[in-house]
Amino acid sequence: MTATSTTATEPLVRPRRSSAFRRGLQDWLPRIVLAPSFAVIVLFVYGFIIFTVYLSMTSSTLLPRFDFIGLGNYVKLFDLPNWWIALKNLAIFGSLYIVICCVLGLLLAILLDQKIRGEGVLRPIYLYPMALSFIVTGTAWKWFLDPGIGLDHTMHALGWTSFHFGWIKDREMAIYTVVIAAVWQSSGFVMAMFLAGLRGIDTEIMRAAQIDGAGPWQLYRRIIIPMLRPAFLSAFVVLAHMAIKSYDLVIALTNGGPGRATELPATFMYSYTFTRSQMAIGAASAVVMLMMVASIIVPYLYSELSTEREQ
Amino acid sequence: MSTATEGPQLGSGSVFGRAILYAVLIVFAVYYLLPLVIMLLNSVKPLDEIRSGNLIAPPQHWTLQPWLSAWSEAQVGVQATGLKPYFVNSFLMVIPAVTISMVLGAINGYVLTKYRFKGDSIVFGLILFSCFIPFQIVLIPMAKVLGTLGIAGTVPGLVLVHVVYGLGFTTLFFRNYYAAFPTELIRSAQVDGAGFFRIFWRILLPSSGPIIVVTIIWQFTNIWNDFLFGASFSDFDSQPMTVALNNLVSSSTGVKEYNVHFAGAVLAALPTLVVYIVSGRYFVRGLMAGAVKG
Amino acid sequence: MYKKFVSTFAGLATGAALFVGSAAAQETVEVLHWWTAGGEAAALNVLKKQLEEEGVTWEDMPVAGGSGVQAMTVLRSRVTSGNAPTAVQMLGYDITEWADQGVVADLSDLASKENWDNVVPTALQKFSKNSEGQWIAAPVDVHSTNWMWANKKIFDEVGVEGDIKDWDQLIEVLDKIKEAGYTPVAYGGQPWQDATVFEAVVLATGGPDFYKKALNDFDEETLGSDTMKQVFDRMTKLHDYVDPNFSGRDWNLATAMVINGKAAVQFMGDWAKGEFLRADMKPGEDFVCQRFPGTEGSVLFNSDQFVMFKVGEDKRDAQLKLASAVMSPEFQIAFNKVKGSVPARTDVAPDEFDACAQKGMKQLAEANENNHLYGSLAHGYGAPSAVKNAVFDVVTAHFNGEYTSEEAVQALVDAVASAR
Asked: Keywords assigned by UniProt (chain A) (predicted)?
């Protein structure tokens, strides 16, 4: 990174008479300006998490109630078939979504990095889905995937009558259509992250390897892709949090169906907390979800922040 | 920053190899464009044609009526106002929310990289973790806080909510960006007697262009597209556009005017699309400098 | 403690509202509802205009989403923040649950003045009052869910004359239609639609008392009975008559299949009628409306009501004006003609309504007198949301082939027990 700043060379300020108070203020100022953000986060994030944890141990239904009843809601939660379906779907959806987005994003980034004419046109095309709300793009996908009116119907109309693509109506396959639409939405974003990573690699290293006689494929496999580690990690965090939070997409595309085949923890939580007036169970599922998120994010943060320390 | 390099050539640059390369890229472009094309095609068809016909077929009778309807005539509540009035509400909410969360994020990033103190990593970790809180759980306690502060159902209330839950990302972006900024420059300015804000204003901010773009894109899209907070914390006179769009498309009874829905959806997405297209060139550059660094 | 909290903040918010509101002396009502589609929203506009004539400004707070799912979430946040709307559209047990939170307003004086007790169907009143018998809500309409809609041309083609009397005859007809090459049943596979058909089958199979015991009282023995197994078997049978793309289909698209002559019948509430009328089809001539075969004489109802929330004294007068306007025969007629439902008062003259609605009004009045008017489970009048959705889970899972009928009966008993 060669972030040069022309202003840095100019004399910024005239040396000033410094008083003890001023110096003291300057020492504390950074912490003072950080404090409001930190306080807000402590209250609105951690305070609310504690609130939710407590709520999950009460008998809350329509609105919060503050009677402590212990861990019964967790027992109930893991007795519910819907919750297990949601967890299983998250495992399928989450792993496919993350892997496909990363592979596709990397592939597209490498291809776009080949001195492509028209990159300026292609890049926004790959990126734009991230800008749209799923309230309606979900509907577009739903239509497209619906055998009665979408792709299937079109292929038949074009004369390919043996064509069949009815995953969205199929209990076993419907979750994969959620993957297709989700990959559509975010793989372009992942592509941008990888592209940025590729562009940030020091050309000297590549040149050195090329002099050693490495071909382009080898170069990618041995040198470049391993150097994208930070980009992979960032992509993983962004994708993991989106997989766990996926709500709009499922609601717009399948609304959890056919049957309850595409229920995910986020839809489960919303439905129990708000639609079904079983707020305590919804809170319990939220706590489990938070623990899952933490189990992914905390090790990542720890490793990232401690490697930085070493540098 | 202008020395962005292209990667090593695959397929030894033969014409055939290049042709395949372009073909693959174009196939993916089609995949990404498909839903938008479906939405656009069907937004200029009469409703009968959508019901009876082929989704991907071009319209036989072009009509702009669905667009007019979505903009100013469709029923999104008791009155047939279209989406028009809700754009104002959304902008009133989005612009301050993006600005404030960005300024705070920038200052946080500045402090966390250039004025490191004991435990700063923990503070950063705690702030960052807030990106991952499921929004559904904050609804009820947030409503209580907004009620206590007396800003429930107001634009300032919505701005507060979006600032709070955007801070994690903005802090992350700016921190990673400023981490790569030479600390020596800051130190020498300090020696010259420049104060905290002066250094920020004169040294860091002028070179923050790319990361500001990334932050604007990210925050603008997220806040603009948010439905849950927008619906829950707004009043009759502050409902944002997504709530109106939802009212337009997901009313459970009555005729579903899909052409109007699609036109409305594209209209509603226009501001975010414009932001992406206008600033897209800087987006990768900004990511390069900030978000993908460890 | 929570109630205290809420009311404290309601008080604070009132204070703030007084302060802000003093500049504009005009009376206002803020109404949270989910009627955003053309016809019904326009019908609500009638109410708005009526109120404006009385000097009350309507502040519109629409939040769409299937049976008010989103609107109820919004309501939670509004009430928690001490900023409750004046009136909220609500269904069945949601009303009861909110009334138990002590956040709704008492309309008893107005109700006794306008004699609501005598004009609103008895079974419905239970849902318009709180546990102390005070009126807290004004019902706007009465929908009924056990209807069957059919394409007359297809019926003529396969030779159906008069009403279909019972299940066996229905199956005969459906078989004939299938042979003739049509999709017999236009079906939308969404949980609430599955449940709408399911409750009609329960009523047809077990009769009125069975329905009440099973889906209003949730008697465990009834739920686990052989009759219930038969109900599930019949649902399986119906599955033979739907097209393969039923899953996730919106109800109005299913109605369109009947209108276009692709499918013969749809089992759906009376709101489907509006779709036929809008397609310029005439009841009796182009389409048939009859009760779900075997359920004649009983009515499963569902009613949209405006629940009044506790607001400051300054808004109280406007609130009462709103409640009174909702209950006025003029509005009831104007609104229900558009909505496809019938008025929530039994003393309204049927002259202005179409043939199907007149049939519906007569049957409603009869069912009310004979005590054969039952709450629809699918629409929130059979059970609180937890139980309702637990039943939806089982019915939907069974219809999509996850359970056999035996398993479904057991799952139903378990799900209801765990949700209660």
From this structure: Cell membrane, Membrane, Transmembrane, Transmembrane helix, Transport
DSSP of B192-221 = TT--HHHHIIIIIGGG-HHHHHHHHHHHHH
CA distance to partner chain A, nearest, from residue B235 (Å): 19
What is this model's ipTM? 0.84
Q: How far apart are CA A238 and CA A249, in angstroms?
A: 16
pLDDT band at A41 (very low <50, low <70, confident <90, very high): very high
> Cβ contacts (< 8 Å) between A79 and chain C: which residues?
418
DSSP letter, residue C282:
P
Q: Where are the domains of chain C?
A: 2-142+304-366, 147-300+370-419
Across the interface, do A261 and C400 touch by the CB < 8 Å criterion?
yes
CATH architecture of C2-142+304-366: 3-Layer(aba) Sandwich (3.40)
Size of interface A-C (CB pairs under 8 A): 85
Contact A129 B35 (CB under 8 A): yes
Taking the C-alpha atoms of residue B200 and residue A171, their distance in angstroms, rounded to an integer, is: 56
Q: Does domain C147-300+370-419 match CATH 3.40.640.10?
A: no
Q: Each residue of A227-279: pLDDT tens digit? A: 887 788 778 878 887 888 888 888 888 888 787 889 999 899 988 988 888 99
Q: Find out whether C297 and C367 touch, Cβ atoms under 8 Å.
A: yes
Would you say the CATH fold of C147-300+370-419 matches that of C2-142+304-366?
Answer: yes
**Cα C19 to chain centroid, rounded:** 39
B192 reaches A (C-beta below 8 A): yes
Look up the domain containing A109 and give its range: 81-310
Rounded to the nearest angstrom, the minimum Cα separation between A65 and chain C is 7
Q: Please indicate whether, in this complex, the C-beta atoms of C80 and B140 are within 8 angstroms of each other.
A: yes
Q: What is the chain B residue with the closest CA to C33?
A: B77
Mean pLDDT (chain A) is 83
Asked if the structure places residue A115 within a domain, the reply is yes
Nearest to C284 by CA among C165, C153, C172, C169: C153
pTM summary value: 0.86
Q: Which residues of B touch C74 (CB under 8 A)?
A: 231-232
